[in-house]
């Protein structure tokens, strides 16, 4: 941060840490030093705080989170500003997010450009606004709006922030110039009413129900995420405890989240999302230049209108299709429709003199066996289980199924054994992760981050688990390798379980973080 003496007995503290003026130790120390200089200079009557390059501050430097716990010590600085004996005015352009807004809440006044955005987006990183945000915001704008902004993390534009009372002035001109003028106008005003830490949270008669509704809402809206619920607990502390104790509770809850696996995963996702746009596959191939891989057969699940169309496309291209349809009626309709479509195609081709060989179209019967016995699941009151009634939800084991399975085992010479939840999870996930390592080894994906972002955005993988490749690093690559080896030895007929060479190379280095994988595993092949 830079310190400048301005005309009219003012000082300017300007945060400078490109690209977004994130709060690093150096920036925070710069702010403190600036405040000390301005305090000891008797000619300085007020201080303006702003950010360089048209951005106020995007909060804590997220890349430093793995090294330190953000928030806790910066909260002390926010309190020092509030207690400061000279007016401090925040001049906001661009963004004031997270610790950036907490810094501004510590200031006695907040002036912003009309296009500025402010907010506390910490929940998206698996943490909470831990530098007084959960204690100061409700004192300023009340509990209901604080709950909304902190649990959603949504930033608001300057106009909305003005209406809510987060900002004092919104202008279309330069906020620093405006703050300079403004500072001279408020020099004689008492500072005490501007110190949020000495205010109490506006009380409401139905506070208990507001909080219980908030808990219910976040459980529904963000299932599995720790940060939104923990933020509500911190806001409860703001209501129920004096400031001195409220900040201790905020600190405790912030530490709990910061140490959680969710925070690590969500912070990984933050950087993964911005890095994937900048990466291209290491093979330097692109989809425009790639040559197609041979396709030997295709599986289609479901034979509704879409499934039939897809099956037809491949069949017409002469690629064998295996289609699965669990509803026997739908299966009959599909068989007729596909056969007649293929015959029409064939006769058209024969008329035009082109040769046509009948493609292989095989329907798997495995899923049909239960359905053929009228067992369509919950809707018919029986499937793998017996239900209390058709469409009922209460299920119990069905002796019919045990009989069916023992016959099935006999026919297919299978031995029965119990399979733990752990094994189910490991065999499903580790084979998927193994495929991810193959994709990396083949140079098809540019980075583990690319695979993870595809899983988060396209396959409903929980964001707070960071994606399959990040998960592998969480479990430990040597563990994943050892388990795959074990399952492959037990099931040599399942090629997905055979550990990939890429995984073996990486596991030989212990458990390196995903960002180091490519440099450690050496140049990838290129299947593109
Ligand atoms: C006594 C002294 C103690 C001192 C301790 C020192 C530590 C200080 C601790 C402060 C405590 C604060 C506690 C607080 O409650 C916790 C937080 O503040 S968490 C952070 C909250 N902020 C955010 O979540 C903002 C995240 N960023 C964004 O939303 C967007 O990046 C943006 C700011 C809106 C800008 O968007 P765009 O214009 O689209 O640009 P990009 O997204 O591409 O970003 C550009 C570039 O900047 C990097 N970046 C963005 N924000 C941060 C950040 N907060 N930290 C680090 N880096 C950031 C981003 O990755 C891009 O980088 P590039 O890809 O270009 O390398």
From TrEMBL:
<dbReference type="InterPro" id="IPR006108">
    <property type="entry name" value="3HC_DH_C"/>
</dbReference>
<dbReference type="GO" id="GO:0016509">
    <property type="term" value="F:long-chain (3S)-3-hydroxyacyl-CoA dehydrogenase (NAD+) activity"/>
</dbReference>
<dbReference type="GO" id="GO:0018812">
    <property type="term" value="F:3-hydroxyacyl-CoA dehydratase activity"/>
</dbReference>
<dbReference type="Pfam" id="PF02737">
    <property type="entry name" value="3HCDH_N"/>
</dbReference>
<dbReference type="GO" id="GO:0006636">
    <property type="term" value="P:unsaturated fatty acid biosynthetic process"/>
</dbReference>
<dbReference type="Pfam" id="PF00378">
    <property type="entry name" value="ECH_1"/>
</dbReference>
<keyword id="KW-0520">NAD</keyword>
<dbReference type="GO" id="GO:0005782">
    <property type="term" value="C:peroxisomal matrix"/>
</dbReference>
<dbReference type="GO" id="GO:1901570">
    <property type="term" value="P:fatty acid derivative biosynthetic process"/>
</dbReference>
<dbReference type="InterPro" id="IPR006176">
    <property type="entry name" value="3-OHacyl-CoA_DH_NAD-bd"/>
</dbReference>
<protein>
    <recommendedName>
        <fullName>Peroxisomal bifunctional enzyme</fullName>
        <ecNumber>1.1.1.35</ecNumber>
        <ecNumber>4.2.1.17</ecNumber>
        <ecNumber>5.3.3.8</ecNumber>
    </recommendedName>
</protein>
<dbReference type="GO" id="GO:0033540">
    <property type="term" value="P:fatty acid beta-oxidation using acyl-CoA oxidase"/>
</dbReference>
<dbReference type="GO" id="GO:0042759">
    <property type="term" value="P:long-chain fatty acid biosynthetic process"/>
</dbReference>
<comment type="similarity">
    <text>In the N-terminal section; belongs to the enoyl-CoA hydratase/isomerase family.</text>
</comment>
<dbReference type="InterPro" id="IPR008927">
    <property type="entry name" value="6-PGluconate_DH-like_C_sf"/>
</dbReference>
<dbReference type="GO" id="GO:0019899">
    <property type="term" value="F:enzyme binding"/>
</dbReference>
<feature type="region of interest" description="Disordered">
    <location>
        <begin position="505"/>
        <end position="528"/>
    </location>
</feature>
<keyword id="KW-0560">Oxidoreductase</keyword>
<keyword id="KW-0576">Peroxisome</keyword>
<dbReference type="GO" id="GO:0036109">
    <property type="term" value="P:alpha-linolenic acid metabolic process"/>
</dbReference>
<dbReference type="InterPro" id="IPR018376">
    <property type="entry name" value="Enoyl-CoA_hyd/isom_CS"/>
</dbReference>
<dbReference type="InterPro" id="IPR001753">
    <property type="entry name" value="Enoyl-CoA_hydra/iso"/>
</dbReference>
<keyword id="KW-0276">Fatty acid metabolism</keyword>
<dbReference type="InterPro" id="IPR036291">
    <property type="entry name" value="NAD(P)-bd_dom_sf"/>
</dbReference>
<keyword id="KW-0413">Isomerase</keyword>
<keyword id="KW-0443">Lipid metabolism</keyword>
<keyword id="KW-0007">Acetylation</keyword>
<comment type="similarity">
    <text>In the C-terminal section; belongs to the 3-hydroxyacyl-CoA dehydrogenase family.</text>
</comment>
<keyword id="KW-0456">Lyase</keyword>
<dbReference type="Pfam" id="PF00725">
    <property type="entry name" value="3HCDH"/>
</dbReference>
<keyword id="KW-0511">Multifunctional enzyme</keyword>
<feature type="domain" description="3-hydroxyacyl-CoA dehydrogenase C-terminal">
    <location>
        <begin position="424"/>
        <end position="512"/>
    </location>
</feature>
<comment type="pathway">
    <text>Lipid metabolism; fatty acid beta-oxidation.</text>
</comment>
<dbReference type="InterPro" id="IPR029045">
    <property type="entry name" value="ClpP/crotonase-like_dom_sf"/>
</dbReference>
<feature type="domain" description="3-hydroxyacyl-CoA dehydrogenase NAD binding">
    <location>
        <begin position="298"/>
        <end position="352"/>
    </location>
</feature>
<dbReference type="GO" id="GO:0004165">
    <property type="term" value="F:delta(3)-delta(2)-enoyl-CoA isomerase activity"/>
</dbReference>
<dbReference type="GO" id="GO:0070403">
    <property type="term" value="F:NAD+ binding"/>
</dbReference>
<comment type="subunit">
    <text>Monomer.</text>
</comment>
């Amino acid at each position: 941060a830079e310190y400048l003496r301005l005309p009219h007995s003012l000082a300017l503290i300007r945060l400078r840490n490109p690209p977004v003026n994130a709060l690093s130790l150096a920036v925070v120390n710069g702010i403190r030093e600036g405040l000390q200089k301005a305090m000891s200079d008797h000619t300085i009557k007020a201080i303006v705080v702003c950010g360089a390059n048209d951005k106020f501050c995007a909060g804590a430097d997220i890349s430093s989170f793995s090294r330190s716990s953000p928030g806790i010590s910066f909260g002390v600085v926010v309190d020092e500003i509030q207690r400061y004996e000279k007016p401090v005015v925040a001049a906001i352009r661009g963004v004031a997010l997270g610790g950036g807004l907490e810094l501004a809440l510590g200031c006695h006044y907040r002036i912003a450009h009309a296009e500025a955005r402010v907010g506390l987006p910490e929940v998206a990183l698996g943490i909470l606004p831990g530098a007084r945000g959960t204690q100061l915001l409700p004192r300023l704008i009340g509990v209901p709006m604080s709950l909304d902004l902190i649990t959603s993390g949504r930033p608001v534009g300057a106009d909305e922030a003005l209406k809510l009372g987060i900002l004092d002035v919104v202008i279309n001109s330069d906020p620093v110039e405006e703050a300079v003028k403004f500072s001279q106008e408020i020099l004689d005003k008492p500072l005490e009413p501007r110190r949020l830490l000495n205010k109490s949270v506006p009380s409401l008669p139905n506070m208990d129900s507001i909080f219980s509704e908030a808990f219910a809402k976040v459980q529904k809206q963000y299932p599995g995420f720790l940060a939104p619920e923990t933020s509500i607990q911190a806001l409860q502390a703001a209501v129920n405890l004096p400031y001195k104790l409220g900040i201790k509770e905020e600190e405790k809850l912030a530490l709990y989240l910061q140490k959680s696996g969710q925070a690590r995963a969500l912070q990984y996702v933050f950087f993964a999302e911005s890095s994937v746009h900048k990466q291209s596959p290491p093979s330097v191939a692109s989809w425009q230049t790639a040559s197609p891989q041979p396709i030997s057969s295709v599986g289609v699940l479901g034979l509704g209108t879409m499934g039939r169309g897809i099956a037809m496309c491949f069949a017409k291209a002469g690629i064998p299709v295996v289609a699965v349809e669990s509803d026997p009626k739908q299966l009959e309709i599909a068989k007729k429709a596909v056969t007649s479509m293929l015959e029409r195609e064939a006769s058209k081709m024969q008329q035009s003199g082109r040769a046509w060989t009948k493609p292989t179209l095989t329907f798997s019967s495995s899923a049909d066996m239960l359905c053929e016995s009228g067992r369509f699941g919950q809707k018919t009151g029986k499937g793998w289980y017996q239900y209390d009634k058709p469409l009922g939800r209460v299920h119990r084991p069905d002796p019919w199924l045990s009989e069916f399975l023992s016959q099935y085992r006999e026919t297919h010479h299978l031995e029965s054994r119990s399979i733990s939840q752990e094994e189910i999870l490991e065999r499903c996930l580790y084979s998927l992760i193994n495929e991810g390592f193959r994709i990396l080894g083949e140079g098809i994906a540019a980075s583990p981050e690319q695979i993870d972002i595809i899983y988060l955005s396209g396959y409903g993988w929980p964001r707070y688990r960071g994606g399959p490749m990040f998960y592998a690093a969480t479990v430990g690559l040597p563990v994943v390798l050892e388990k795959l080896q074990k399952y492959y030895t037990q099931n040599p007929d399942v090629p997905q379980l055979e550990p990939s060479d890429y995984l073996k190379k990486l596991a030989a280095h212990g458990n390196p973080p995903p960002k180091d994988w490519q440099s450690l595993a050496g140049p990838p092949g290129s299947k593109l």
